[in-house]
Design goal:
The complex is a heterotrimer of chains A (233), B (248) and C (285). Chain A has one domain: Aminohydrolase, N-terminal nucleophile (Ntn) domain (Glutamine Phosphoribosylpyrophosphate, subunit 1, domain 1). Chain A contains 5 helices and 14 strands. In chain A, 28% of the residues lie in helices and 32% in strands. The relative contact order of chain B is 0.19. Chain C has 285 residues and is an alpha+beta fold. The chains are: A alpha+beta (233), B alpha+beta (248), C alpha+beta (285). The interface between A and C is medium-sized, with 35 and 34 residues. Chain A: InterPro entries: Ntn_hydrolases_N, Pept_T1A_subB, Proteasome_sua/b, Proteasome_suB-type. Chain A: This is proteasome endopeptidase complex.
């Protein structure tokens, strides 16, 4: 048991991002584990880099938190020089440079996504070795193995915001249904020219998958209201 | 410059009592005595033109460059001390490369102009350095469209629709102000620049004209204007000049 | 020439094999003895030296293995110049993760580069070459790096990095036209380099080169050369699991460099014997 707890705190994870007509949707589960112990059941793996660019983190929690903090710092400094918003590509490139040039030290699989005036919504994958890939959608983390088929089948170019959001929620929920390292709630973010919208789907409101049972909802909820919440970022 | 500057013009690290830094003023003079350099922003790009006095009959044509590409999307034309100009051009190339490497995008015009101005300014801060005797016209085509910047020896940098530096700058600027820059394309622009350079030129002495542009016709890359087009612009400029002489 | 992928934490996704933890601990490694009755376990644990540290195994050596990889690159010379071919897959271990990664890149007006192996290292090499090309552009003297110069440069870069025990994990193919003469060369991750009339890296060395040896002529027409590459790619698709049926062909001719749109090849699965392979060989599967 002790050996279990000495393991690295890791985002055994499902993360994804998908571009739609005019923006992007990012999604993630909320589980952080230390071996078999759930260290945090309501983690936020969607981290802001700038106002309109976010990163989905997978891998070592410590590595990715610090990496994101560095990218935030560099981007904020750079925005001063630019006198305006940085592009999603610049954010992704900075993250990629850090991952690539420290690949011997880092365990970080990232997805950088956001909106800028030049490219609209864009999604970049930055997997382990520090490759930089512009993609229409991508998935990552341990849970992603279970939903490649689902995503390849259900992602369509030029989806509406609602369709794309539904696609992301469904994909993440299916990954959580089969991956023990993914779980908890589903957090999503929609970014487009109008701004950033966060959504939160509590665990007990996720549609039960095959072989599962829909849990009864508690009679009263201590904090906040029931139902999928929509919040400001 | 005798009299008032006396004693206060030996170093950039000393102001004169009336608030001038004479060394940068003198550096500006090196620019003011140079061949004219003109830049205009047309509706589809930027045109730069340089008037280069031919210093010797034995000079190999085209060997005294004054307009340089610093990246695919940016170029600089320098007036004043040509050797100083090359340092500034080298710095611009380095800035463009390092920006691209770090941020993944081509360096925006404003950032490049800011960084070049800071670089030039550095040389007017310390007693042991001499300011650059060069003004640089920077032409860029980035996501925000075509832009023209001027960086002076003092480190001041401004963005222009059109401007000129060097000997014929006053007359050239008057001519530029007459142009309807929003209405002309770079293909017309090179003719206008050629005309301006010929009209402000001291007629007796021979000169070589260097034209460069960045526009749709050049594939949004900073390039020398193709030889045929440049020659045509020169012919047309000479003809126009002869016409106006006839009228006089 | 291609290394065996891959080892990293399964937390990062599928396609992995090998040690799953960055710091191997007694609980996950069979070669490290767990604390036992023979060892003091009460009170003295803090003074025990971690066996993995003692064995010098505590290092994390991520650069020993590639992560996102491309497979073979093929190249042949022909009458008008050089043709390179590759598929567009970026593998993640055995996962076919990125299906539209272009592994053939224009270097300048007379040179193309094809790459297999770690694709982040390939992107790094691309930035090096882009900087050189921009330098040439700015010099504006009409000169560009020749294919042979690009090839020599890359061989030095890769050899230099392997001497730092930090190799760029790639097999590269450089193709181009130099004074009207086709140039074709390859550079491996430890710096080995050679030129030839036809070249294949990785699995292609086994699958495609026999075809090249049989059918390649330096005076092939464009149609013949394309057909030969198609046949070689098809074999790679049949017999290399890291290959997908989505290919590109790059061409260098006197007209310049062109990289084709991605295309799929017709494949043949309709042989009668395929339907019931055991019919004519009783007792087999």
């Amino acid at each position: 048991m002790e050996a279990e707890l000495n393991q690295a705190v890791s985002l055994g994870t499902t993360i994804m991002a998908a571009a739609y007509d005019g923006g992007v949707v990012l999604g993630a589960d909320s589980r952080t584990s230390t071996g078999n112990y759930v260290a945090n059941r309501v983690t936020d793996k969607l981290t802001p880099l700038t106002d309109k660019v976010y990163v989905c983190r997978s891998g070592s929690a410590a590595d990715t938190q610090n990496l994101a903090a560095y990218v935030q710092l560099y981007l904020h400094q750079h925005q001063m020089e630019l006198g305006g918003d940085v592009s999603v590509r610049t954010a992704a490139r900075l993250a990629q440079q850090i991952v690539y040039s420290n690949k011997a030290m880092l365990q970080a699989g990232l997805i950088v996504a956001g909106w800028d005036a030049r490219d609209n919504g864009s999604v970049y994958g930055v997997p382990l070795g520090g490759t930089l890939l512009k993609v229409p959608f991508t998935i990552g983390g341990s849970g992603s193995a279970y939903i490649y088929g689902f995503c390849d089948k259900n992602w369509k170019p030029g989806m509406s915001e609602a369709d794309c959001h539904a696609f992301v929620v469904k994909a993440v929920s299916h990954a959580m249904a089969r991956d023990g390292s993914s779980g908890g709630c589903i957090r999503t973010i929609v970014i487009n020219k109008d701004g950033v919208k966060r959504h939160f789907l509590p665990n007990n409101e996720i549609l039960a998958a095959y072989g599962e049972l829909q849990p009864p909802l508690p009679a009263s909820i201590a904090v906040g209201g029931g139902g999928a919440a929509e919040m400001s970022p | 410059m005798s009299g008032i500057g006396t004693g206060y013009d030996l170093s950039t690290s000393t102001f004169s009592p009336d608030g001038r830094v004479f060394q940068t003023d003198y550096a500006q003079k090196a620019v003011d005595n140079s061949g004219t350099v003109v830049g205009i922003v047309c509706n589809d790009g930027v045109v730069l033109g340089v008037e280069k006095p031919i210093v010797s009959k034995m000079l190999v044509e085209g060997s005294n460059r004054r307009a340089y590409a610093v990246d695919r999307h940016a170029g600089v034309a320098v007036a004043g001390v040509a050797a100083d100009g090359r340092q500034i051009v080298n710095r611009a190339v380095q800035e463009a490369v390092s920006y691209k490497n770090l941020y993944g995008d081509a360096i925006p015009g404003r950032v490049l102009a800011d960084r070049l101005a800071s670089y030039v300014h550095l040389f007017s801060l310390y007693w042991y350095s001499r300011p650059y005797g060069t003004a640089s016209l920077l032409a860029v085509y980035d996501d925000d469209g075509p832009q023209l910047y001027l960086i002076e020896p003092s480190g001041a940098g401004h963005r222009f629709f059109g401007t000129a530096v060097g000997k014929g700058r006053q007359a050239a600027k008057t001519e530029i102000e007459r142009l309807k820059l929003h209405e002309i394309s770079c293909e017309q622009g090179i003719n206008e620049v050629a005309k301006i350079l010929h009209s402000v030129h001291d007629e007796e002495k021979p000169f070589e004209m260097e034209l460069a542009w960045i526009c749709e016709a050049s594939g949004r890359e900073f390039k020398r204007v193709p030889a045929e087009l440049a020659a045509a612009a020169e012919r047309q400029a000479k003809a126009a000049l002869a016409d106006s002489d006839m009228e006089d | 020439m291609l290394p065996v992928p891959t080892s990293h934490s399964p937390a990062l996704g599928p396609g992995c094999a090998g040690p799953s933890l960055a710091y191997a601990s007694a609980s996950t490694r069979s070669d490290i003895a767990p604390p036992s009755a023979q060892q003091p376990c009460c009170g003295s644990e803090p003074f025990m030296v971690d066996p993995s540290a003692a064995a010098g195994l505590g290092l994390r050596r991520h650069t020993d293995t590639p992560y996102v990889t491309g497979t073979s690159v093929l190249g042949i010379t022909y009458k008008d110049g050089v043709m390179l071919a590759a598929d567009t897959l970026g593998s993640y271990g055995s996962t076919k993760r990125y299906k539209s990664f272009e592994r053939l890149a224009k270097v300048n007006d007379a040179t193309v580069l094809g790459a297999g192996g770690e694709l982040s290292d390939f992107q790094y090499i691309q930035t090096l070459l882009d900087e050189l090309a921009t330098e040439d552009y700015c010099a504006d003297d009409g000169m560009q790096l020749t294919p042979r110069e690009v090839y020599a440069y890359l061989s030095r870069v890769l050899y230099n990095r392997r001497n730092k025990f930090d190799p760029l994990w790639n097999s590269l193919v450089v193709g181009g036209l130099e004074g009207g003469v086709p140039f074709l060369g390859t550079v491996g991750m430890i710096g080995v380099h050679y030129t030839d009339k036809h070249i294949a890296t990785g699995f292609g060395q086994m699958l495609a080169r026999p075809l090249f040896r049989e059918r390649h002529r330096p005076d092939m027409s464009e149609e013949e050369a394309t057909e030969l590459l198609h046949d070689a790619l098809r074999v790679c698709y049949y017999r290399d699991k890291q290959t997908t049926n989505k290919f590109q062909i790059a061409k260098v001719t006197a007209e310049g460099v062109s990289v084709s749109e991605a295309f799929a090849l017709e494949t043949q699965w309709g042989y009668q014997a395929f339907v019931n392979p055991a019919a004519n060989a009783l007792g087999t599967w």
